[in-house]
Write a structure and sequence with these properties.
The protein is mainly alpha-helical. It has helices at residues 2-19, 28-46, 49-52, 64-94, 101-106, 108-113, and strands spanning 116-118, 121-123, 128-130, 134-136. Helices cover 58% and strands 8% of the residues. This is Ammonium transporter AmtB-like domain-containing protein.
Length: 144
Amino acid sequence: MGAAGGASVNMFLLVKKRFFHFDDTLDVFTCHGLGGAVGTFMTGLFCQNLVNNSVNGAFYGYPIQIWYQTLGILVTVVYSITCTLVILIPMHVIIGIKIKRRDQIRGIDNVAHGENWQIEVISTSSNTKTRKPKQQTNNPVTIS
């Protein structure tokens, strides 16, 4: 079950990064949503009385469990979407939920906290080395 869940998450991530452009920087939906749905569905296939004293899964003589698991996944999706919209719609109306393009270019560290970070790249004739970021406090970014 874990291998199938991990493989499905990995394959979806590869497809998502290549063909879709969702604003999901940490891949939260893919890891938790898709991984959880695959695990929930597969539990309906493999569960058995020897482990949980409740019901068997589809592979152990109780195929209706697949439909129960699918219904559980759908209810969870509807509930999650509803709760997310209840939070995001008022936020969008009151303060907005998208960062302005100018602020994205300037950097959220600078806009929200007044901090600037810069990565130094040192070029040599043989290769290019990158040093660790160093903090700059009084060097604002200018946008023209």
